[in-house]
Write a structure and sequence with these properties.
The structure holds two protein chains of two kinds.
Chain A (H helix, E strand, L loop, with lengths): L11 H11 L5 H8 L3 H13 L3 E4 L2 E4 L1 H6 L2
Antiparallel strand pairs in A: 1-2
Helix pairs in contact in A: 2-3
Chain B lengths: L24 E4 L2 E4 L7 E6 L6 H19 L2 E7 L3 H15 L7 E3 L4 H5 L14 E6 L5 E7 L7 H17 L13 E3 L5 H7 L5 E4 L2 E4 L2
Parallel strand pairs in B: 3-4, 4-5
Antiparallel strand pairs in B: 1-2, 3-6, 6-7, 8-10, 9-10
The chains are: A mainly alpha, B alpha+beta.
Amino acid sequence: MPCVSADGKPTKSGIEMLSALKGGASTPDALSGATGMPMFRVRSGLRQLVNAGFVKQVGDNYQLTPEGSKIVP
Amino acid sequence: MVILMEEKTDEIRLPLIGEKAPDFEAATTQGTLRLSDFEGSWLVLFSHPADFTPVCTTEFMAFSEIYGELKKRNTELLGLSVDSVSSHIAWIRNVEEKMGVKIPFPIIADLNKEVSQKFGMIHPAQSKTETVRCVFIMDPESKIRTILYYPLTTGRNMKEILRIIDALQTTDKHKVATPANWNPGDPVVVPPPGTTEQAEERTKEGYDCKDWYLCFKKL
């Protein structure tokens, strides 16, 4: 499912991914393990969350941006 | 006689067995996906002619039934037709409501036929607007390992799709081939020897050899 809706807000799946990132999962593999989502959905979701400014990629890892942290304080 | 050949530079060359599949980005019922998002898993990319049609409905129910078996084989499913996301959503909701079957895999909405043309899924003599029933089985590196084409009127055989995946994964793991009508547990074919020395050696290896070029073994 998309992680960001048409109005730019994270969806239920998006919030699940942001929560997993906050919980320490920082790679697609770890996010797939933490959320139970298949890898193709994690990769697609991360792309959407990065484009929407909720997540940033640092090397092979992903981190919450300040905008993302506001969603999962 | 001189035959003039017209040079066609804009022709789309279909991906063939052994080649890496061309990447794409497409709208699906589970968001925008790229083919490369599936790397690391085996993938069955399949097309169907249209939503809300009888044979396709039976196929989608059948694909859903084997979804668990596919997951056990580290294999994902990705459907495709020249319909919109809204049409796909309406159809899969209808299948769930009327047939009690949930469709767990994404379906590409290929309205501009970009993906279907890349993969040769439209056969104009069958239909200029609908995709025929294609199956592309790809390995975790997105290399095409099997291509199947079925006409509009013939639904696919799920057992055969599972059997092909089992055969390909067995081949990769054990460096063997699988004979006609092979199923998991059956003897496999040992690759033919490349030298006379290997041909001589294999007679001592305990294989079930019908002749030097046709040897079976149990895994």
